[in-house]
Amino acid sequence: MKRISKLLQKAWHFVTYDIWRITDNELSRSKSLLLNFLKIILLSLRGFSNNALQTKAAALTYFTLLSFVPMLAVIMAIANGFGYQSILKSQLFDYFPGQRAFLEKAIGFSETYLATLNNEVIVGVGLAFLLYTVFSLLSAIERMFNDIWQVSKDRSFARKLTDYLSIFIFIPILLTLSSGTSIFLSTFFHLFQEYHFISPIAGILLKILPFIITIFMFTAIYVFIPNTKVRFSHAFYAGIVVGFAFQCFQFLYISGQLWVTRYSSIYGSFAALPLFLLWLDLSWLITLFGAKLAFAGQNVRQFDFEQDSKRTSRRFKDFTAIVLMTIIVKQFEDGELLRTSEELSAESGIPPVLTQSELNRLTDAGLLVETSSASRDKTIQYMPAFDIHKISVGLVLKKLDELGNENFKVDTDNRFLDEWVKTLDAKEAMFNSSKDVLLMDMK
Question: Per residue, what are the HEC states of the chain?
Fold first, then answer.
């Protein structure tokens, strides 16, 4: 038992601490890939508690339930305008076979709601309410995804208007195209059914088509919903995992419809609602886990030395700030391309999380400014905030030392006047030392 306990302690220490101190350049490519895969899984699982995915899923379930009929009304109205409302209905029933009863009632409500908009007096108010409800739901979804991706700013109102309207225009079109694709493949293989080798291929393609559509649907969600640059490869890998998980969940849910008879005896015709809520909550949980998976895959290196970075000494923080400022000043002097946080971390060897923390500190102190370039996918880069001929080691340390709030009710005028003056004198003596040098003159 003691040996087992020690092994478990070592394993726990490895996955929570040691693994984050191993960098890619210390391992072979195959081992590095395996290690990064393990890190991604650990980060994704950690997101369940740190990002409260269950709570987010419950919140989105509530928002979706309130917005479901107005959202469906908007989609049906767009589909009706293009002339394929009936195709859209059949596709919805095919994609969500376990929710047929609920969808039939929701579509009935949405059609009734759209019929009331024929009255010219209420058409403006009705459309405004529809759009507000739909935009509120999409804004809530975006906020949840931004929180997972650690993005503090949502889209601007103008971008929300264009992006959200695009989503609702393309949803019925894509559903119709997928239906057309299924019909085309079925017809095509039927014409060549006398060729025996085609039949197995046809069966396989028609069976995996829903998986392929679901995978690309989730991939598109992970690429376009967060208000940040998401690499397609990481969104696609997450889409594959979540697409298969969602299809398996659909299969298990439909297989468990035997429980509907028990719910019907309790709730009657109202049984569709609690089952729909359960399905909706688990679907959002799977979707949010995929977002966390995509985030972990794209940012796995940002968590190297994470725990050590939280306990970094002030001396080492100041040292890393000087190193980063020196690199930025010298590359600016030489007219080189501006560096991103990842590039500065790779060039200096400073852990990514500590690099970003110090860049934020230098920016807040007014020593650096953030900029972006369209040629580099609008990624954030850093440049000196003022004349590099004035940036010295002493100035950087002084600016960082003065960063923050000093407005506290401590008596620095009388009781602690001597301590305050001596502290300032010692700081000035250090910052204005004759040994102070410009960063551009550093070796």
Answer: CHHHHHHHHHHHHHHHCHHHHCCHHHCCHHHHHHHHHHHHHHHHHHHHHHCCHHHHHHHHHHHHHHHHHHHHHHHHHHHHHHCCHHHHHHHHHHHCHHHHHHHHHHHHHHHHHHHHCCCHHHHHHHHHHHHHHHHHHHHHHHHHHHHHCCCCCCCCHHHHHHHHHHHHHHHHHHHHHHHHHHHHHHHHHHHCCCCCCHHHHHHHHHHHHHHHHHHHHHHHHHHHCCCCCCCHHHHHHHHHHHHHHHHHHHHHHHHHHHHHHHHHHHHHHHHHHHHHHHHHHHHHHHHHHHHHHHHHHHHHHHHCCHHHHHCCCHHHHHHHHHHHHHHHHHHHHCCCCCEEHHHHHHHHCCCHHHHHHHHHHHHHCCCEEEEECHHHCCCEEEEECCCHHHCEHHHHHHHHHHCCCCCCCCCCCCCCHHHHHHHHHHHHHHHCCCCCCEHHHCC
